[in-house]
Write a structure and sequence with these properties.
mainly alpha; 21 helices; Na/Glc_symporter_sf; Na/solute_symporter
């Protein structure tokens, strides 16, 4: 993975670092009077929301992981991007109107309003652990491996540098600094990836030459049910379970639309990231397929770095590494800000009511503290090897069903009560934890469990039956004056812009055409 840089590459990296700090710190000074470091004063515009979500979503593991899947399986991984628009529409048109009207600052506060204190406390703990381990710890570890491999420094040194860079402007500038730097870094990622894809086409010669040198299955979005890793059944049934939670109820993602200037800006922000999903297979997965054609002896996990090393001239090589660092820093900074938001507004406020100035100070110190904890978790990952990282990713997919069930049924049925939600969250969460560990560790033996996407679907169906049965058998103690999301949404549908719905319809048509063509 070692790369050779010249003075132009180092100049590009230095300019990137200067621009990053300038944008982050200059904005922090400009907004010195802004007291809200958690939601940016609820003033974000649609393009800021879209680019910020893109930057947080397009972490280093996406750049490297998607190229790896492209190298070994083709475009099948595009499903995880192309199908996301359905759930982004669900977020924008169903969940977001209620979230903004309720003026919640964190996702756990939704469960407090809908189901009560015990469900609220469950999601606080889950959100903090998810942000800390899945987002922050894994991003620092993955990024540390990349930076240490590229520049030849120690893993711990690389992790600390990444944490310091991300923490500096996040603690001072809050969400607005994260969003502003996220927009800048998203542009860097897109430009670099487009150039890499162009150079790959230039090297191969044409699209026909690319297609002719790859298996036919590489160009199918849906693979046969017999495929052990990415069958169409697993994707169609299992992916929605994870996507409902990830796109509609994950603090790191949803926090960006909660900070929207108004409902319409938030909806267009979700629409914008949905539209960006169209280009992501082209700039992230296609380079992996190109690497299969050009450098077939490469290990799949090294496909992205190999393409950069072999095709990018000096100067652009520095830009590509800047893009990797950008994806990493944006994921880490988003994680830090999301953690401090939940901790300060949901945990601390239960014990001591803070005014806005105290919240701001608390947020800064929490950001610094959790960065130190994240460094420790990243180093623990290094002692466990890649297997532990894979374990965390598998557990995320299997632990999503309880939350997906509670949020989805909370939307579609008024009869779901707090007792049923608690049974699913606490009981289902414990069962999912046990099943997840057994599944990833191949206990009792390899091949015993179905693919994790199918297992997610089975758990989702079982817990849906549980939440319905318990709701019917128990008497609700909830505040029935609080409407469900559909009831809230029904009263506002007439006031929503038709242009938003027409835009979603246009995006749906484009996505359907893509699926028809590639199947």
């Amino acid at each position: 993975m070692s790369l050779t840089f010249n003075s132009i590459d180092y100049l590009v990296l230095v300019l990137y670092a200067i621009a990053l700090f300038y944008i982050g710190f200059r904005f922090s000074k400009k907004e010195k009077s802004q007291q809200d470091i958690f939601l940016g004063g609820r003033s974000l515009k649609w393009w800021q929301i879209g680019f910020s979500i893109f930057g947080a979503n397009a972490g280093p593991m996406m750049l490297i992981g998607f190229a790896s899947i492209g190298f070994s399986h083709g475009i099948v991984a595009s499903n995880f991007e192309l199908l996301a628009w359905v759930f982004l529409m669900l977020l924008a048109m169903i969940f977001l109107p209620y979230y903004l009207k309720a003026k919640i600052s964190t996702i756990p506060q939704f469960l407090l309003i809908r189901f009560g204190k015990r469900s609220y406390n469950f999601l606080i703990v889950y959100s903090l652990m998810s942000i800390l381990v899945v987002w922050l710890g894994s991003a620092l570890y993955a990024g540390g491996l990349l930076i240490s491999g590229i520049f030849g420094c120690q893993l711990f040194t690389a992790i600390v540098i990444i944490a310091v860079v991300a923490t500096s402007f996040t603690a001072i500038g809050g969400l607005k600094a994260v969003v502003r730097t996220g927009v800048f870094q998203s542009v860097i990622i897109i430009i670099s990836s487009v150039i890499l894809t162009f150079l790959g086409f230039q090297k191969i010669g044409s699209l026909d030459a690319l297609v002719s040198q790859t298996p036919e299955s590489y160009w199918k979005l849906f693979l046969p049910a017999s495929n052990p890793e990415y069958s169409w059944i697993g994707i169609v049934l299992g992916y929605p379970v994870v996507a409902i939670y990830y796109w509609c109820a994950d603090q790191t993602i949803v926090q960006k639309v909660l900070a929207a200037k108004d409902l319409k800006e938030g909806q267009y922000g979700a629409l914008f990231i949905g539209a960006l999903k169209i280009i992501m297979p082209i700039i992230f997965i296609l380079p992996g397929i190109m690497c299969f054609v050009l450098f077939r002896n490469t290990a799949p996990d090294n496909a992205y770095i190999t393409m950069i090393k072999q095709l990018m001239p000096h100067g652009l090589l520095g830009l590509s590494i800047a893009a990797l660092i950008a994806s990493l820093v944006d994921t880490v900074s988003s994680s830090l800000n999301s953690f401090c938001t939940v901790f300060t507004l949901d945990v601390v406020q239960q014990f001591k009511v803070l005014n806005s100035n105290q919240q701001r100070r608390m947020g800064k110190w929490v950001t610094v503290f959790v960065a130190l904890v994240g460094i420790g978790i990243a180093m623990l990952f290094s002692y466990s090897g890649k297997g532990f990282f894979d374990l965390t990713q598998g557990l995320v997919s299997i632990l999503a069903p309880p939350l997906a069930v509670v949020f989805l049924w909370g939307v579609i049925w008024r009869g779901v009560n707090g007792i049923a939600a608690e049974v699913v969250l606490y009981g289902g969460g414990l069962i999912c934890l046990v099943l997840g560990v057994c599944h990833v560790l191949n206990y009792p033996y390899q091949g015993y469990w179905p693919h994790f996407l199918m297992l997610s679907f089975y758990i989702f169906v079982a817990l849906s039956l549980v939440i319905v049965a318990v709701s019917l058998l128990t008497k609700s103690k909830d505040n029935l004056e609080i409407p469900t999301l559909f009831e809230q949404h029904a009263g506002e549908t007439r006031g929503q812009s038709k242009s938003v719905w027409l835009s979603w319809a246009g995006l749906a048509i484009v996505m359907i055409m893509i699926y028809i063509y590639f199947n």
